[in-house]
Amino acid sequence: MTAPTPPALPFRDPHLPFAKRVDDLMSRLTLDEKTAFLHQFAPAVERLGIAAFRTGQEALHGVAWMGPATVFPQAVGLGATWNDDLVRRVGEAVSKEVRAMRARDDRVGLNVWAPTVNLLRHPLWGRGEEGYSEDPKLTSAIATAYTRGLRGEHPTYWRTAPVLKHWLAHNNETDRDTCSSSVRPRVLNEYDLRAFRETVEAGAVAGVMPAYNLVNGRPNHVSPYLESHLRAWTEDDLLVCSDAGAPSNLVDSEHYFDTHEEATAAALRAGVDSFTDHGTDSSKILARVRGALDQGLLTEADVDAAVRRQLSVRFRLGEFDPEHDPHADTAAFDTPEHRELAREAAEQAVVLLKNDGVLPLADGTRVAVVGLLADECKLDWYSGTLIHRSTPLEGLYERFGAERVSFAEGVDRVRLRTSAGTFLHVPPSDDSPDEARGAEGALDPALLAGRTDLPPLTTDAEGTELALVDWGEGVLTLRAPDGRYLSVAEDGCLRASADQPGGWVVQETFRLEPHGNGHLLRHLGTGRHVQVAADGVKVAASDAPAGDETPEVFELVVTERGEDAVTRAASDADVVVVVAGNDPHINGRETEDRTTLRLPAHQERLLRAARAANPATVLALVSAYPYAVDAEVLPAVLWTAHGGQSAGTALARVLAGDVSPAGRLPQTWYADDADLPDLLDYDVIGSRQTYLYFEGTPLFPFGHGLSYASFAYADLVARTGDGKVSVSFTVTNTGSVTADEVVQLYARAEDPSVPRPRRELLAHRRLTLAPGGTADVSFELPCSALAFWDVAHGRWRLEPGPYALLVGASSEDVRLSATVTLDGEPATPRPVRERGLEAAGFDEQSGTEIVDRAKAAGDAVTPVAGRTGELLFRGCDFGTGVTGVTVTVAGGEGTVEIALDGGPAAVLSRPAPGSGPYDYTELDAPLTAEGVHDLRIRLRGSLRLAHVGFSG
Predict the structure, then answer these.
(1) pLDDT digit string (tens) for 472-506?
(2) Residue 677, Cβ density class (10 Å: 0-12 exposed, 13-18 middle, ≥19 buried)
(3) Residues tagged active-site
(4) How many CB atoms lie under 10 A from the CB of residue 372?
(5) pTM more than 0.90
(6) Cα separations in angstroms, 317 against 27, 34, 150, 156, 723
(7) Most buried among 217, 665, 704, 858, by the most CB within 10 A?
């Protein structure tokens, strides 16, 4: 007789709810097995038939780091489309390619680390290319669309599991793992949390990744906001994955904890579920977890909570139900539909900033395309490897014909003469062109090594002419005639070996340093000077004593200036297109912020030369960031982010008028560096940042973008009722071509009691209209969309009164407006007699920063070093009267001065420091007050103020 088939274990039963299946599986795992799941690379549990699993597959604008894939425009370019549906379709295509690639390579993960929802608060942030917008509403709309595409539409099983990056208030690369973002409660709730919240609440997010930085003195990886905010927004289990190396930073660079066991336990208890640390080696993290368990810093229940959340994601991905997973057989990869979508996205991302009529270009136009990016299709750190490639030059060749397009790159042609009178020489090589970085796929492309199979540079009497580009601040690349960049591999030899600059530490950048009558050539990747040795050209050895260095002194011999080549090409053309911008691996990238909005001097030279030779000069900026350019002297200016595989074709089609541009700026373009706040100033309200608060005149405003058509807005109707605001209007294409228009609805509180945005985006929609076509547009929003965070009571409040509703084509181009009056909750004073004042709950501040009251939770305020700090608390209700004040302080010496309505101050002094920043003491002083007053606190010294109480 045949033995009966044993019943399937409950966790394998697809008819049971996921929660019950997770419960069953958890009950079968040992503590060691559960602990092993806490590392990014979770091992298989063979006795239960559970496969290995890893968190983390980069997929910001296409599948990255795993070889060839469809490459879509950078995230900031997707943000510039202002097209939720398009971005959803891009997310869908990316997730399908993830599934297709995983079917042939199980290193490809289904837990995708995308999108990035950090707000583009500051245009000098090095990672601005990864975000969508400076505005939380637009960011959340685009992020929600992308995550919905990544997730898929099946009600039960997810195609991929998206993780949002990087929680929280992370907009600087400078000292990113040790600096603290001081974020006041209003900014926290109205700005930084908002983009995350609305995306999570939309229901297509599997988790978040904390950022490297600290917020209010506390590392994001031990943030109490993971529980008090993030997990309060949804009933879904959210998986929190650490950023790479961040768990170790808690001890090694931040020195926030004394031991790694303490740090790991604190992160796990705060809500981190998966530790990305030490690459594929899980031994260190697991040893720390076991140590924390042994020391009583963790319980098995803490481990269970994290593992449960990971398993919840794995069940949703269909791992345990392969026969029911609707995505298991997905094979869509580099399909015609994906190629068409990449082109469509690149076209929709192009923003026409200015046009005096030179565009679109007529058929038959003789075009000179010049500039350092004219024949480039640049990738960034989070790009896949190109299968298809289109540069602006190639796109214009295709559109206008090669015979009508001339080209000048504008590089400086140079030779480097040694002190011996010889020149640097690139030896010939029979090798085929270098494969693009990452073509073979790498879980960590930072580990890709430079090539050592090609001959090192030598010297000879004639030398090799090199193409020199100065990317700004003296950072140079040198390229050989065969197109390869000079690079340095692990053996220290200089070779022409790289297809493009790239890598975690770029090995293709140099600096010429004046020395005597010549220059030293410093290799920036190693920080060492270039030498000429008997066995070739190399950098000085890392272990060579400083005095033993014998750097070569070079004479730079220029054979052609880039502007001369540009002048020749521009002079014979009807129109010149100058393609300028950035290389995403140089001077503004992950680990490196920009220092200026200006174009690099080399590119400014080329632009001036083109204009001097031909006034009909169009500037096409291809960049990850805004620039401050002199647009007044140019007849037309366009901007697009690096547009992926179809960038050149898309730009050419827009220039030719085959497509009317309709991209819109997702962030303010400032006119000058002087308009910018300090990079580390996160108080967007107090320092008047972004279009929400900026009071100056921008170069181009948020939401700006022109068209080859024109549009008329009419018939605005605004109504309120049932807790909603309804707005309707019509838009008509009054031009002669079919075109898209992006309609934008803003609001402004007309009589606010606290500083409110000058205008704030409420909704947007991208429409396609034929000539003469009219669209009826309507938006309905809850009145709560107009609320603000009331620091007096620690909650959202809709203020009663008039609100302006502004409809138009940008934040400044308002076509229609109406005013509605809303019922709300009137302001009430702070009940300070009963509750006192939390120091971080101020209305206004200057010269202070928020720090951690304790390592687990809470805020305090301290003066910025060397300054006197001031805090203002409006409308403090002392009731029938108080006679004393008590301040709770810690840290160093200092004084707290408390005054009412500008009157005399009560002074409380801390003469000697305590034993630590978290050792609080109370200081008392007499203070007489009754009724409602504004209260001002002045802080001096290095103390921390946590709370102010009143008695009597």
Answers:
(1) 999 999 999 999 999 999 999 999 999 999 999 99
(2) middle
(3) 243
(4) 26
(5) yes
(6) 21, 19, 12, 9, 38
(7) 665
